[in-house]
Amino acid sequence: MIKTFAIISPENPLGWTDSSEEEFKVKYAKWTGNPQKYNKEALDELKSSLIKDKLKNNGEKCLKYGNFNYVKIKGSYGNKENTLIIFNIPFADAKTIAKSFGQESFFYGIVGEEKSKIAYYKTDNACITYKLIDITDTVTYENDAEDFFSKFGFKYKINMKEFGDNVNSINNNGEFEESMNENRTFLSRAEHRKIAYKGETK
């Protein structure tokens, strides 16, 4: 059973990218022109890289200790990248994981019998808060739907039914409801989630 889901990428936090061949040539030219200035900029970049690794580590810890059930898919936030669909997650935890991965944006969806609603959230203050940008109910249930989502035009083709085999069975409804209770702490919800699934992991 899927009641809610979040779409969050662990890649490219806060817009960081690796150097392409062209970018490397530009950096090399800067170094030959002014090594002292380049070295200072390179040190700043290294610090950013260390922050990036720390964010990735924090995000992965949140997934692990939260006892979340998720699958990896290919998606698009503008560029194609690996992304996670995390099932049966409270909105508060979706924000926490997006922040832990240092993500500029994430999607949060609520599954209905006929249609699902999906919302796009974005930060403009380095993940301190996330603002609702738009919401739509155009998630489809087509049997041949490809995994697809985009912040551009809000077009979605996510066949949630195809993920049924990837979602842990809920064996204790009371514990499951407590795992979605946003008045509890992150770790408290995680413990209730673990009991609801009876310790299953996929």
Overview of the structural elements:
This protein has helices spanning 21-33, 35-65, 91-100, 173-179, 186-196, and strands at residues 4-8, 69-76, 80-87, 105-110, 116-122, 131-139, 148-149, 156-157. By secondary structure, the protein is α+β, with helices and mostly antiparallel strands. The chain contains five helices and eight strands, in the order βααββαβββββαα. It is elongated, with a radius of gyration of 19 Å. Mean pLDDT is 76; it is low at 143-147. A hairpin with a 5-residue loop joins β4 and β5 (116-122). A six-stranded antiparallel β-sheet has the order 2-3-1-4-5-6, covered by helices on one side. It has a two-stranded antiparallel sheet with strand order 7-8.
Task: Characterize this entry briefly.
The chain has one domain. Helices cover 36% and strands 23% of the residues. The chain has helices at 21-33, 35-65, 91-100, 173-179, 186-196, and strands at 4-8, 69-76, 80-87, 105-110, 116-122, 131-139, 148-149, 156-157.
Q: Key features?
A:
5 helices, single chain, two-stranded antiparallel sheet, six-stranded antiparallel β-sheet, alpha+beta, 202 residues
pLDDT averaged residue by residue: 76
The helix-strand sequence is EHHEEHEEEEEHH
Main beta sheet, described? 6 strands, antiparallel
Overall radius of gyration: 19 Å
Query: What is the number of beta strands?
Result: 8
Low-confidence parts, pLDDT < 50 over ≥5 residues? 143-147
| Number of helices, counting only DSSP H or I runs of 4 residues or more | 5
Question: Considering DSSP H and I runs of 4 or more, what fraction of the residues is helical?
Answer: 25-40%
Strand composition percent? 15-25%
* Tally of individual domains: 1
Tell me the distance between the termini.
Answer: 14 Å
Please state the overall shape, judged from the principal axes of the Cα atoms.
elongated
Which structural class should the secondary elements be placed in? alpha+beta
